[in-house]
């Protein structure tokens, strides 16, 4: 049996929606991978044999230094990155920080240039224009297209 090329494989990503006391969500700017320069939630690839919530905890800790709790399934998006010839299913989970006062840290500077807290309204403003949509990572664009209110999902 011939092995498949990477572009023939549908990968699974896990995106972690962390909210603060004001209802803002943690987002970063991607570097060094597909979607470079776009705004993303913490997250990454689901590894073989790994539970979804374990992946969310691991990726969040690896990327931000934050420990999270109260994980909850939110939704799934089907994300086809045509220009990069990549296809992902993204599983969104929500959670809270174990220590609500702890600040995110850039743990992987080669993959993320910053972490900031943004409101859903701020992110949806970017969705209002085609250029703004290009500033959001495709799974977030699809999440917002599929759901009128992020806060209602959480």
Automatic annotation (TrEMBL):
Domain of life: Eukaryota
GO-annotated cellular components: cytosol
Positions of the Nudix hydrolase domain: 9-140
GO biological process: dGTP catabolic process
Entry keyword Protein biosynthesis: no
Hydrolase keyword on record: yes
Gene Ontology MF term list: 8-oxo-7,8-dihydrodeoxyguanosine triphosphate pyrophosphatase activity
Keywords on record: Hydrolase
Transmembrane regions: none
Classification via InterPro entries: NUDIX_hydrolase-like_dom_sf, NUDIX_hydrolase_CS, NUDIX_hydrolase_dom
CDD domains: NUDIX_MTH2_Nudt15
Name used for this protein in its record: NUDIX hydrolase domain-like protein
Source species taxonomy: Eukaryota, Fungi, Dikarya, Ascomycota, Pezizomycotina
